[in-house]
Amino acid sequence: MKKLSDYLSLGGGPSGKKKTHPTKTDLDEKTIFFLAEKILLSQYGIRGKENISPKFWKDGKLFLFSQNSLWVGEVWTNRESIRMKINQEIGEEIVSEIKVSEI
């Protein structure tokens, strides 16, 4: 007979499968986009959030787009600072590069 603690622990449940919690490296695109928008809002305010948006996430690269070339230049100049703030918010080095382009 199994103890109640066997069912509640990460060691396994009634099916015998191990329960795992998502790790920080299992972040999805929506989470990265949320954090990027949060950092962009804090750095550039509402106008920046309206003009700069994350569009794609792949292999540690975050792609940001804007309809205005002035905002593209601004983000490109500060992309390293934005990348460091996003990684600091996550707690580990997830975003390795930020690419910025105009739509």
Would you give an account of this structure?
With 103 residues, the chain is α+β, with helices and mostly antiparallel strands. The protein is built from 4 helices and 3 strands, in the order ααββααβ. It has helices at 4-8, 29-51, 69-77, 79-90; strands at 52-58, 61-66, 97-102. The protein has a 3-stranded mixed β-sheet with strand order 1-2-3. β1 (52-58) and β2 form a beta hairpin. The model has no long low-confidence stretch (mean pLDDT 84).
Classification by helices and strands: alpha+beta
- Looking at the structure, the CATH topology is GMP Synthetase, Chain A, domain 3
Task: Write down the overall geometry.
Answer: elongated
- Looking at CATH, the homologous superfamily is DnaA, N-terminal domain
What is the radius of gyration computed over CA atoms, rounded to a whole number of angstroms? Answer: 19 Å
CATH class: Alpha Beta
Q: Please give the domain count.
A: 1
Count up the helices.
Answer: 4
Features:
single chain; about 100 residues; three-stranded mixed sheet; elongated; 4 helices
What's a concise summary of this model?
This protein has a single domain, classed as 2-Layer Sandwich (GMP Synthetase, Chain A, domain 3), CATH 3.30.300.180. It contains 4 helices and 3 strands, in the order ααββααβ.
What is the element layout, followed by pairings?
Blueprint (H helix, E strand, L loop, with lengths): L3 H5 L20 H23 E7 L2 E6 L2 H9 L1 H12 L6 E6 L1
Parallel strand pairs: 2-3
Antiparallel strand pairs: 1-2
Helix pairs in contact: 2-4
